[in-house]
Structure formats: structure tokens, C-alpha cells
Amino acid sequence: RTFISAWYLRNSIACADYDARAYDSKIPLQRYWHRQRYTAIRDMIEKQGTVLDVGAGSSRIITLLPDGSVVFDIQTNKLRFARRYGKTLVQGSAFNLPFPDESYPCVVCSQVIEHLPSDPEIFDELDRVLCPGGLMVIGTPDYGGRVWPVVEKLYALFSPWGYADEHITHYSREFLSSRLTRMGYRIEGVRYVFRAELIMAFRKS
Predict the structure, then answer these.
(1) Alpha carbons 115 and 198: distance in angstroms, whole number
(2) What are the b/e assignments for 28-40, b being 16+ CB within 10 Å?
(3) Which runs of consecutive H residues, i.e. helices, occur in the chain?
(4) Is 0.70 surpassed by the pTM of this model?
């Protein structure tokens, strides 16, 4: 029982190096998924300046961040693992970012908001630390489409120790477009992974 429990933990999102290992996963779909996300965000943040990555975990996306960028996460174990990437690490809550107003020209928040309660404060905080004219990149499953709900059910079936049940808030492309547009943003780019995971880039006015 101990071995099985340890195996489940080793392969769950709670494991410190989960995201880093998924990039090189032996499971073709998982490896493809993480590399497509990596490529999409790489293309969006290129030449945007220093980046604040909110909820970075241990993702290989950290390796894309230019000098002066900050890796932010609430989980200390993932930040310890991320030391190897040589970036500035900060621990805390996304609802109370410990940074001055308008301090970063680019903010990334990928695969985070669906794990948080439905609260406008998360978008207000991301907006607060982003410079005027800066770029905000948001990544989340698209619950408004047809593909992700099916993928999530299959994931829960074949990987019950996974984290699909931790998606407590469901977003759609239409919701994010409307929410950020009302805040004065314009859509600058939209990418999908497997027509299921949505990655959107918004330019602050």
C-alpha cells in the first residue's frame, strides 16, 4: 500500500518536478501537450521584456524567461526544484502579489486560474502588476469548447490520481475575451493545444 501511495504521489501534480518531467514524458500525448504549450507561450512572450510567471510550478517554460524575470508560486517544493533554472523565485498567493503596481511588461499565468475560486481579484492583481502597454498571457482549459470536457472525462477515467477534479472554476474563450476586454485589453493572440487548452495573449491599453 505504501508503494502504491508513493507511486501515485510521484506521478501526481503535487510532485515537485511534475511539469518538468511531463515535457519529456514517455506518454506521447502528454509530451506533445506540454511541448505545444511551451511553444505557444514562447512565441507569445518573445521580445516582450522581463516576465512575471504567476503559478509557474516546475514548468520548462521557466527556461524561456529572460534575465530579470520572476518565477512565482505558492508551492515551496516546486520553487525549490525550480532553483536549477537560475531565475528569481518568490513564494506567495496570486491573490496578493508582493510586487509594485505596473512593475512588469509581461505577465504569464498558465494553468492556474482553473484551480482557483471564481474571483475577479485574480485578474485585478495580474492587471495591477502589468505595465501599460504590457502583455498578459492566460492559459486554461476551454470549457466552452467541445474537446476539453471529453478529454477531462477520459483523463479522470484513465488517471484517477490526476488533477482534473481540482479544476474548480471553468473558463471559456468567450468569458476571458469579455472579461479582459471590459478591463481595457485587446486580444493579441489565441492558440490552442489539441483544440482543448486555450492560451490567449492580451495587450493592456
Answers:
(1) 15
(2) eeeeebbbbbbeb
(3) 2-10, 18-23, 28-45, 76-81, 121-129, 147-158, 173-182
(4) yes
